[in-house]
From TrEMBL:
This is dTDP-glucose 4,6-dehydratase. It comes from Deinococcus aerius. Its cofactor is NAD(+). It catalyses: dTDP-alpha-D-glucose = dTDP-4-dehydro-6-deoxy-alpha-D-glucose + H2O. Residues 136-155 are annotated as: Disordered. Keywords: Lyase, NAD.
Amino acid sequence: MPALPSPRRLLVTGGCGFIGSNFVRFWLHRHPESRVVVYDRLTYAGRRENLTGLWGHPGLSLVVGDIADQAAVRGACQENGTDLIVNFAAESHVDRSILGPLAFTDTNVRGTQVLLEVARELGLRLHHVSTDEVYGDIPEGRRSEETSPLSPRSPYAASKAAADHLVGAYHVTYGLPVTITRGANTVGPYQHPEKALPLFSTNALLGEPLPLYGDGLQRRDYTHVGDHCRGIETVLLRGESGQVYNVGTGEEITNREMARIVLETLGGNQGLVRHVADRPGHDRRYAMNVDKLRALGWEPGCGPREAVARAARWYAANRWWWEPIRGGEFRSYYRRQYAHRLTGDAGVPSPDVSGGE
Ligand code: TYD
C-alpha cells in the first residue's frame, strides 16, 4: 500500500502537554513551511510555558478547547484548513486514574471518538498517540507486537485501549485514513512533575525522598521524548494507513535503576530512595518489539539509561519551569498521593470524587 500524503496543516491536540509540546517544537524545526494549530484545554498538565520560545512563530497558533467539544474541534479544523489531526490530548497519569477514573473516559475515549467524527465529516487523516500500557503486564522473555492482544489493567490503560479500538474501527468501517503509535515510558523536558522521572529528579534536587513503589523491580522502557517524536514523524511521513507502530528503545531497566541513575546524575545521596506502598494493580513489566518502526528507517538515538540521565539533567538546568508547578495544585495532589506512603501507613489513598485533577 502507498504511504499517505505528507501532511502540511496539522491540528495537534494536547500540543501544550509533555509529548505534544516536544512534538510541536520538533515538527516546526524540521518542517518550517508547515502550519501547526495547537488545540489544548490547558489543564494542569497542558501549559503555555511548555512552548516557551515558539510563540510568535509564523507557523504556530493556539486554540483553547476540549477535544470532546465537537463543534469547537470542527471549527478549529475548518478555519485552519487542517489535513491531519495528531491526537496527543489525554489524561495520562495512572495514579490519578486510580483516584478519579471518570475524567479518563471522558477525555481519552469520548474525546478521541469526537476527533474521529470530525475527521470523518471533513475527510481528514488522523494519527493517534497511544501507549504500551494497553498491552498490560508482559512476562519476562516476551515482547508486545503490534498485533498482540490488548490487556489493559488500570483505568488509564483501559481508556487508551478503548480509544485504540475506536480508531481501528473507524478505519475498517468508514475507511478513515488513520495510524497509531504506541509509545513506551517517555522522558524528557516539560514532563509534569507528578510522573516518576521528573518527580524523582525534582525531589533529588530539593533533597526530598524518592518514593519508589513496592520493591522497585518493575521494568520500564524509558525512551527519550526526542526519539518518540522522531518515531511519530516517521509514521506520519512513511506509515501505512490502518497500521499500528510501537515506539521505544526495545530495552528495559528497573525503576530502582532509574532512581539510581537520577541520583547519580544529579549528585544526590542514594539514601534518598524510600520504598513505599505499591500502586494497586501495578504492572511489573512493559516490553515492546519495535522492529516494525525500524523497518521504516527509524532507530532510537539512545537507550533507557542515557534517556533517564539526559532527562534528569534538563530538570537540573530548568528550575524556572518546574518550581512554580511544584508550588501550586501539585502540593495537594502530592499530599493525597504520598503522605500516607511516606509516613509508613500502607493504605490506598482515598478516592477523589471530583475528577482527575
Ligand atoms: P509513571 O511515570 O507514573 O509512568 P507509568 O505508570 O505510566 O509507567 O511511573 C513509571 C514507573 O515508576 C511505574 O512503574 C511506577 C513507578 N513510580 C514509582 O515507583 N514512584 C512514583 O512516585 C511514581 C509516580 C511512579
